[in-house]
């Protein structure tokens, strides 16, 4: 998907119940345009979700250690365990996925800076809650909601040059 014509950037929080519901529709919409759309996850842990930032740190560590494959494995597990996230659960998810926890802990400050910088970028771009989607840099304002059909319709318009 390096040659993808459409990039969806998803600003998300691992403890946000709305974020856990948007991943499926985004993937379903993307599947309608094989090779033409890529997804970029952007950390945006909300301050009132106590375990969201530690979950983002683990996910960022997974990305640095194993690239997209390990990141998405940890991402999916964190969302699957969303209601039971704790420091112990986040470590267990990382360990089970194959993340070197000691390396994550050693690089925690670095990962927190990446997360803070990502949040600042999002806020400057108009993110004011999660989930927030941007399609080719333009904030997706879903008149049709966050369902696969509405997202796919917007992707189609971008590909056709009508948006």
Task: Explain what the structure shows.
This protein has 163 residues and is an alpha+beta fold. The chain is 56% helix and 12% strand. It contains six helices and four strands; from the N terminus they run βαβααααββα. The protein has helices at 17-31, 52-80, 87-97, 101-106, 108-125, 148-160, and strands spanning 6-12, 37-43, 132-135, 138-139. The chain has a four-stranded mixed sheet, with helices on both faces. Helix 1 links the parallel strand 1 and strand 2. Helix 1 (17-31) packs across helix 6 (148-160), helix 2 packs across helix 3 (87-97) and helix 2 (52-80) crosses helix 5 (108-125). It is globular. It starts with 5 loop residues before the first strand and ends with a helix.
Spell out the blueprint of helices and strands.
Blueprint: E1 6-12, H1 17-31, E2 37-43, H2 52-80, H3 87-97, H4 101-106, H5 108-125, E3 132-135, E4 138-139, H6 148-160
Parallel strand pairs: 1-2
Antiparallel strand pairs: 1-3, 3-4
Outline of the structure:
This protein is α+β, with helices and mostly antiparallel strands.
Oligomer: single chain
Shape: globular
Number of strands: 4
Q: Determine Rg (CA atoms, Å).
A: 16 Å
Output the helix-strand order: EHEHHHHEEH
Beta-strand residue fraction:
5-15%
Helix content: 55-70%
Features:
163 residues, alpha+beta, four-stranded mixed beta sheet, 6 helices, 4 strands, globular
């Amino acid at each position: 998907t390096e040659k993808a014509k459409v990039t969806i950037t998803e600003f998300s929080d691992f403890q946000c119940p709305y974020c856990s519901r948007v991943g499926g529709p985004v993937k379903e919409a993307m599947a309608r345009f094989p090779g033409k759309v890529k997804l970029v996850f952007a950390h945006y842990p909300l301050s009132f979700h106590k375990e969201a930032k530690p979950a983002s740190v683990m996910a960022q560590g997974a990305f640095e250690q194993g690239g997209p494959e390990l990141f998405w494995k940890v991402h999916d597990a964190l969302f699957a365990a969303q209601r039971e996230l704790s420091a112990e659960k986040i470590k267990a998810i990382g360990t089970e996925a194959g993340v070197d926890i000691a390396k994550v802990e050693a690089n925690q400050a670095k990962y927190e800076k990446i997360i803070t910088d990502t949040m600042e970028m999002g806020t400057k771009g108009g993110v004011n809650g999660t989930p927030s989607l941007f399609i080719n840099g333009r904030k997706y304002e879903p008149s049709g909601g966050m369902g696969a059909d509405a997202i796919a319709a917007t992707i189609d318009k971008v590909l056709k040059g009508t948006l």
